[in-house]
Amino acid sequence: MTRKHGSLSFSNIRSMRGKSLRTIIANPDKVPSYSGVYIWRYWPQPRSYTKSDLLDFLKKIILEFPVIEKELTIKNDSITYSRYALGYDCNNPFSSLGLTEKKITQLETLLENDEKIEPICNVFEMMLYMLPPLYIGKANIISDRINQHINRRSSKLLDKLDKVNISHGDVYISFIEDKLSLPDKDMSDLMEIIFQRVTNPVFTDRQG
User: Fold this and answer.
1) From start to end of the chain, where are the E strands?
2) This protein's superkingdom (predicted)?
3) In angstroms, rounded to a whole number, what is the distance separating the alpha carbons of residues 131 and 201?
């Protein structure tokens, strides 16, 4: 019998978000001390698997996810463009996320089935993983740099979170150990640049 490839599970995706910022602030000694890259993500969760809490969750992420602003220079003129990754109509979350009326009707029909609400919540939570991260950084000793962030030393990252009213409990940090560097050559900046160029983190002012 041919063994079929398995499905990517929701638990696999959730495990990649790392630890909550609130937990890290309370237990900074648990942050790894190796060299590498760290990624901050906005990743709240529904309070429960009910239709009303799902709708509240969607309204929350539409309202809270930061506007992505980038400056472009065209023929010596600088312009700033703003992008709302999840739309901006929190009162109509399904429309804000770009669903057509047909798809909204299908989704609302599914939401009448209590057994389908949890998998639907999981789909929307997986969507958060696909959003641009809040920040990507690198450090020779990750624990030292994270301590600078959480103590607001040489870092304005927490100030930026506070400015857009994102709870520390809704931010998660994951760590990727540097396996590329040589004894005489630090290559963690290469990892950082690759990740930044593709994902365009919201709060990274200078990418690369």
Assistant:
1) 19-20, 36-42, 68-74, 77-83, 135-139, 171-177
2) Bacteria
3) 9
